[in-house]
Amino acid sequence: MRFTKQIAVIFGAGRGIGKAIATRLSSEGAKLIIADILIDEIEQVKQQILDTGGTVEAYTLDISDEKKSNQCIQKIFNKHKKIDILINTVGIVGPSSCPIENYDLKDFIQVINVNLTGAFIVSKAVIPIMKKLNYGRILHIASIAGKEGNPGMVGYTASKAALIGMVKGLGKELAETNITVNGVAPGLISSEMNSETDPEMLSYMVKKIPMKRPGTVDEVAALALWIVSEEASFNTGSIFDISGGRATY
Question: Which terminus of the chain has fewer Cβ atoms in its 10 Å neighbourhood, N or C?
Answer without folding.
Answer: C
